Amino acid sequence: MREAITPLILTYNEAPNIHRTLEKLTWAKQIVVIDSYSTDETLDLLQSIPQVEIFQRKFDTHTHQWNYGLKQVTSEWVLSLDADYILTDELITQLENIPPDTQIDGYFVPFKYCVFGKPLRGTLLPPRQVLYRREKAIYTDDGHTQQVKVKGKSTMLSAYIHHDDRKSLSRWLWAQDRYMIIEVQKLRHTPREELSFSDRLRQYKIIAPLVIFFYCLIIKGGIFDGWIGWYYALQRTLAEILLALRLMEEENKQDK
């Protein structure tokens, strides 16, 4: 089965992460990377791996990048990965054991978020459909990010992917602020009945950051992870505060 899978990765200045992601993909015959014209050492790291084929495209949206990437893949199956996704050995074994004649068209995988390489007990990351038949998949916009829609049957694998971003806090803040500007448009222009419960909660600008802090630290057990649990809870709370500030800013513009 693994021979029929092509990992597909998006990159932009991912030098702190991409080498660890590639280390877990040595089994792949081909790795397709869509790079948004990185200016750090990302391209050098990618070019050092013989299986990697690089396509460069100017970034406009994640959805367009992923759909462009799908067109570059020729295998039956695609394994879509962010540049900070690390496959566990257990997941690699599960990929190998999927029968080639499976009637399933897509597979969801659970995640464990890592802080400085240490996995947390629980996070806000839901399972994502990362493995699917190429001809049955298309990406659509979902706020600042994207969602893959796969025609046919889907199921869940039990092994994890580690989400382990080692980029600097300054880079994280820059990215989060960009994301929240897009999230504001989603929250303000999507009919309320079409929003998820968590998105409806985010419209309560003062309450949402407090709820997220409590949820990460207590409900998800972050307090038992020590300082990395506190780091994650504060990080996610800060993201929600950024969103609340952007919402207030947008509402103030509308009132004038």
Can you give keywords for this protein?
4-stranded mixed β-sheet; 7-stranded mixed β-sheet; 2 domains; alpha/beta; globular; 8 helices; Spore Coat Polysaccharide Biosynthesis Protein SpsA, Chain A; 256 residues
Number of domains: 2
Structural class, by secondary structure, is alpha/beta
Major sheet description: 7 strands, mixed
The counted number of beta strands is 13
CATH class of the largest domain: Alpha Beta
Overall residue-averaged pLDDT value: 93
Strands of the biggest beta sheet: in what spatial order? 3-2-1-4-9-6-12
Helix share bin: 25-40%
Radius of gyration: 19 Å
Number of helices: 8
- Principal-axes geometry comes out as globular
User: What separation lies between the terminal Cα atoms?
Assistant: 59 Å
The fraction of residues assigned to DSSP E strands is 15-25%
CATH architecture call of the largest domain: Alpha-Beta Complex
Low-confidence stretches: none
- The H-level CATH homologous superfamily of the largest domain, spelled out, is Spore Coat Polysaccharide Biosynthesis Protein SpsA, Chain A
SSE order: EHEHEHEEHEEEEEEEEHHHH
- For this structure, the CATH topology of the largest domain is Spore Coat Polysaccharide Biosynthesis Protein SpsA, Chain A
Describe the structure.
The protein is of the alpha/beta class and 256 residues long. The chain has two domains: 2-163, Spore Coat Polysaccharide Biosynthesis Protein SpsA, Chain A, CATH 3.90.550; 169-255. The chain has eight helices and 13 strands. It has helices at residues 18-23, 42-47, 62-72, 89-97, 169-189, 197-202, 207-219, 227-255; strands at residues 5-11, 31-35, 52-56, 77-82, 85-87, 106-109, 111-115, 118-119, 128-133, 137-142, 145-150, 154-156, 161-163. The strands form three sheets. It has a seven-stranded mixed beta sheet. Strands 5-13-7-8 form a four-stranded mixed beta sheet. A two-stranded antiparallel sheet has the order 10-11. Helix 7 (207-219) packs antiparallel against helix 8. It is globular. The N and C termini lie far apart (59 Å). 29% of the residues are buried.
